[in-house]
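In the current project phase, we have settled on a layout for protein records. One protein thus recorded is set out beneath this paragraph:
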Amino acid sequence: MNKTVYLDNNATTRTDPAVVMAMMPFFSERYGNPSSMHAFGGSIHKEIEDAREKVAALIKADPSEIVFTGSGSESNNHAIFGSIEALGTDSTVITTRVEHPAVLQACRALKEKGVNVIEVGVMSDGTLNIDEYSEALTTPGKKLVSMMWANNETGVIFPIKTALEKARNAGAIFHTDAVQAVGKLSEVDVSKLPVNMLSFSGHKIHAPKGIGVLYIRKGTRVAPFLKGGHQENGRRAGTENVPYIVGLGKAAELAMEELASGENKRIAAMRDKLQEGLIKCPDAIVNGSLKDRLPNTLNISFEYIEGEGILYHLSDAGICASSGSACTSGALEPSHVVRAMGVPFTAVHGSTRFSLSRYNTEEEIDYVLSVVPEVVDRLRALSPFVTS
């Protein structure tokens, strides 16, 4: 196989050609500023609102509750810093130890400023430690919970319904980083699960990089993160990124069609086939729950070898995978997620993530299964820790 086999879709996805086509007129023909008084620019405003309706429909929200941002990371920062600005620094922030760096580092920055921050642990399968979470909610005073819907490294799905109910009973407001869940899980439905805020990102659902969403439920108090303009009903200053907003609207439309068609079942079947083949490698361990997991994600450790070595050899073979979050993969330290799960020391450095999308095929999975075992055997032969 000469082409690239891309299995790193939790890092970013290919922009759908239909999305690119929808965006193109707004780079060249319809380039006006939507805030302009003249008709040439002002007519663009309707395109933004059309896209807002499509994005809102994907998560069953009211369009007025959708704020367009520059990324999922910005959305997370807006939710966290904006909430604490509204609640006051005497509040408590409750998050988990396996969050994306955009959440963890924002919370830790608040902690350095004196805000009480509690990081809740997870079980060995990566699922939420409910008892620890419940205990954190007994903290007196105003509280913000920021918890991911699904983990970007393991694909483990958190019990958002239960976590939300407990938060509401404790008087806390609830934000979820749903970057990995939107477009993959039909239960991301804010009409049924009334979270206060929800973040997601365009480039994880086949829209371009550089566009995100923060859903803010009506009545939720949250200060603007970017100040200095009237855009997004005064909730996010800056001239709107019209081409990318239109592209995200199209991507949301396609994601709804994919959820309805059952495409994720095909993706999950390929993921399962990949897992069944790779778990036959010596000392292979699947990281994370096999039950509560995204349909496209497999995180697997190969004991006694380095993930970087695996990825290097896979790249040579044209296979794109990851050792964890794209935002931390440049670091030599093992993933904070697998460490929080208590993955054995012999396996923590060998974790490899494969994440699929609608563009992957059975032929590609067969090719990966023909390559990975050979790579693992080669690296194990060089490892001083393998005794047999």
Summary: The chain has two domains: 5-13+262-382, 17-258. Residues 325-329 have pLDDT under 50 and may be disordered. Residues 96 and 120 are 4 Å apart (CA to CA).
